[in-house]
Design brief:
By secondary structure, this protein is mainly α. It contains eleven helices and no strands. Helix 5 runs antiparallel to helix 6, helix 5 runs parallel beside helix 11 and helix 6 runs antiparallel to helix 9. The longest helix is centred in the middle third of the chain and has 59 residues. It is rod-shaped and about 110 Å long. The two termini are about 65 Å apart.
Length: about 260
């Protein structure tokens, strides 16, 4: 009873509610820039890429094994047909032998359709994995470009030399105005310097999230516009898949591997 009452909450109910995203208004300080540059390290996608590679490997191996087994069964069927034909010739009972052969042929035709169907699914799965990997790589590229754009915007914190010079310039001006109680705030050097610093540190570019999404969307649109040939023909994983499939389908002959573009 107690263990049931204390069961682990589901993933959706335990997910924290994130605050509403607010666009960047000031330039990132050095610490924030460093954290952004290390984002790809602290949240590495290497494990995902390894899993995708494992998926391609399994799809390729299963496709090869599946077609290997069909070829073995096909070879056994052809030997059986040859033995039946020889026996029919000796016994002069070709009608009975033809009936058996017809049944075997139908079974092999059914097996071939099933193998081809699963092979097509495996090939589609391989293409899908390649597409996902392209998406992951586009995300990494977008993050690198984001880091570059943020770095070019500058940093929030002034350097020590700039801060010292600003303080040095402000002292005599404050001293000259110390006895002038009627000066407007607009003529206050400290107020002017704060305003200048605020303007200097204001972030005027697009928000980091917008920059990332825009770059990722552009890359995804470009990839989606590619033909199947451009996406897969020169991809090593797809080439490997097609080679394994070709070798499994032609185990005992020298049929050349078709060009990757076909």
């Amino acid at each position: 009873m107690t263990s049931t009452a204390r069961s682990r909450p589901s993933g959706s109910s335990s997910r924290p509610n994130l605050p509403t995203y607010q666009p960047l208004t000031h330039k990132l300080n050095p610490g924030a820039e460093h954290a952004l540059r290390n984002l790809s390290t602290t949240h590495s996608l290497n494990d995902l890429k390894r899993r995708l590679q494992t998926a391609v490997t399994h799809l390729t191996e299963v496709t090869g094994d599946l077609n290997d087994q069909y070829q073995i069964r096909k070879a056994g069927h052809e030997k059986q047909r040859a033995r039946q034909a020889a026996r029919a010739k000796e016994l002069d009972s070709s009608q009975k032998s033809d009936t058996v052969d017809d049944q075997g042929d139908r079974r092999m035709e059914d097996a071939l359709r099933e193998v081809d169907g699963w092979t097509g699914k495996m090939e589609l799965g391989t293409r899908n994995v390649i597409d996902v990997r392209a998406r992951v790589e586009d995300g990494e590229t977008a993050l690198r470009e984001l880091n570059t754009n943020i770095s070019q915007q500058g940093r929030t914190q002034p350097t020590q030399s700039t801060l010292g010079a600003s303080q040095h310039r402000s002292r005599p001006r404050r001293a000259r105005n110390a006895n002038n109680d009627d000066d407007d705030d607009d003529n206050n050097p400290l107020s002017n310097e704060n305003q200048e610093e605020e303007e200097e540190n204001t972030y005027t570019g697009p928000s980091p999230l917008t920059t990332y999404k825009t770059t990722l969307t552009t890359s995804s649109t470009t990839y989606a516009s590619l033909s199947l040939k451009d996406r897969y023909a020169s991809h090593n994983d797809y080439i490997g898949f097609r080679k394994i499939l070709h070798d499994a389908r032609h185990p005992n002959d020298d049929t050349p591997l078709p060009h990757a573009s076909t």
